[in-house]
Design goal:
Largest sheet: 8 strands, mixed
Strand order of the largest sheet: 5-4-10-1-11-12-9-8
Number of strands: 12
Structural class: alpha/beta
Strand content: 15-25%
Number of helices: 8
């Protein structure tokens, strides 16, 4: 089985939709996915993800299943340099890299800061929903691997969000999402591909083959959006926080 994690196009957060550029990205994405076999499609309930999925679903004459748990990862914490709740996945490097627990897949959500935001429970709710869906498609989680109940070569698409995508990827490969949130960057409308490997019958693991692919933009001469990134140098006019 293959999984496609698709980040929404360039967002207009105020309207929970897409910018003009974001709608172009969604159309280019649909052209690319037109020739990609997709057997099932799941969509975040947020407008920017649904607007990104719409051209693809129309072109492929498919209906997407809306899943509440595919919304952007909602956990909030009071970040060390802030005095109010903020997304738990948006830290300054100097604040999180000095805490060893954040690198550990079992401990990252057990720091005092994360516990105050009930992050571990929210993470568990999301990953349990995800595993339940995978089980419906033939792969049931057992510990850190998956029992193959119905081997298949289906392709499942998820139209969702960067932080949520990192949560699911970390869950599949056994990594702290903190490392993915801060060490990877998936541009708007990018596609990440994950596939199963069944090296012994009945036992499967998931492996990432492509992360954040935006080749559908390059072939159209469309520059990737800067959203999800921060300033390359501090003296630039790019986003710092």
């Amino acid at each position: 089985m293959r999984l496609l994690f698709i980040r929404h196009g360039e967002p207009d957060y105020e309207k929970d939709s897409l910018t003009e550029k974001g709608f172009r990205e969604a159309e280019y994405l649909a052209e690319y996915l037109a020739d990609v076999k997709i057997d099932a499609c799941y969509v975040s309930p947020l407008g920017r993800a649904k607007d990104t999925a719409a051209p693809t679903l129309l072109k492929k004459q498919m209906t997407g299943v809306e899943c509440q748990w595919l919304e952007e990862f909602p956990a909030k914490v009071v970040r060390p340099d802030k005095g109010f709740p903020i997304n738990c996945w948006d830290f300054l490097p100097q604040d999180w890299t000095g805490v060893n627990e954040y690198y550990d897949k079992s401990l990252w959500a057990k720091t005092e800061l994360m516990e105050e935001g009930n992050v571990a429970q929210i993470y568990q709710n999301v990953t349990q929903e995800f595993d339940g869906l995978l089980a419906k498609h033939g792969y049931a989680r057992e510990g850190n691997i998956y029992r193959v109940e119905r081997a298949n070569r289906d392709t499942i698409a998820f139209f969702c969000h960067f932080a949520l995508e990192c949560v699911l990827l970390g869950h599949l490969i056994g990594a702290s999402p903190m490392v993915l949130w801060h060490g990877f960057c998936a541009a708007p409308s990018s596609v990440t591909t994950v596939f199963t490997e069944e090296r012994r019958e009945g036992v499967a693991s998931f492996r990432i083959s492509r992360f954040g692919d935006i080749s559908h933009l390059f072939v159209k001469g469309e520059e990737p959006s800067f959203y999800a990134r921060y300033c390359e140098t501090f003296d630039s006019d790019e986003k710092r926080d």
